[in-house]
Amino acid sequence: MKRLFAPTALALGLSATSAMAFDIDSMSDAERGAFRDEIRNYLLENPEVIMEAVAILQEREAQNKEQDDLALVAANTERLFEDGYSWVGGNPEGDITLVEFIDYRCGYCRKAHDEVAELIKSDGNIRFIVKEYPILGEASELSSRFAIAVKQKLGDESYKQAHDALIKMRGDVTERSLKRLSKGLGFDAAPLLEHMNSDEVTQEIVTTRLLARDMQITGTPSFVLQDEMLRGYLPLDAMRAIVEGKRG
Hints:
Layout: H1 5-11, H2 16-20, H3 29-45, H4 48-75, H5 77-81, E1 87-90, E2 96-102, H6 107-123, E3 126-132, H7 138-154, H8 156-167, H9 175-185, H10 189-195, H11 199-214, E4 222-225, E5 228-231, H12 236-247
Parallel strand pairs: 2-3
Antiparallel strand pairs: 1-3, 2-4, 4-5
Helix pairs in contact: 7-8, 7-10, 7-11
């Protein structure tokens, strides 16, 4: 049987006026206890009300987060898109820019790699920027240091080769395995391994980590697509839809 608030209030001796515009502070302890019991009984009999409230709260939080992310991108535009050191691929003159923060040992980064490559290839008009963001331990750090050393010593084309190889590399990342990788790519390993621990490589990693901190990025992959943050892995079709939406 449904319990209505107004009859209950009247049963407690409240006037019609106080029932319509009541002040809980003016209620006696007994009246307050009865009122709380009435609310509890109502929610138990109508639990869908709780779910509706949770859904509204989540929607509001998502909207607030989206607005916060838009503000973060706007405040860090130059650091994201024109930092002067990150590798730029795809179409450098593309009408859409996609930035990816990656960790070579991240399973979802590996899953996203081929799909991002297909997006860029099939679209033909996307400027793609990679941010080296090693956060998963020593193997991640070594991988990024090697990739950056290749970029700084051998240039962008060689970096792309190393990047693609590292994202698919199985097993431990060690000096020995990086030597094997270098040999397979036709690189001279010795100067690259030496440069990995240079101040120049360290500075690039530190600068990207500071940017990630300011962007409130705590996981990989994380993307910035034009003016929008995309936190986490997205399938190819979803990314294509977002790109088309940006073009309007």
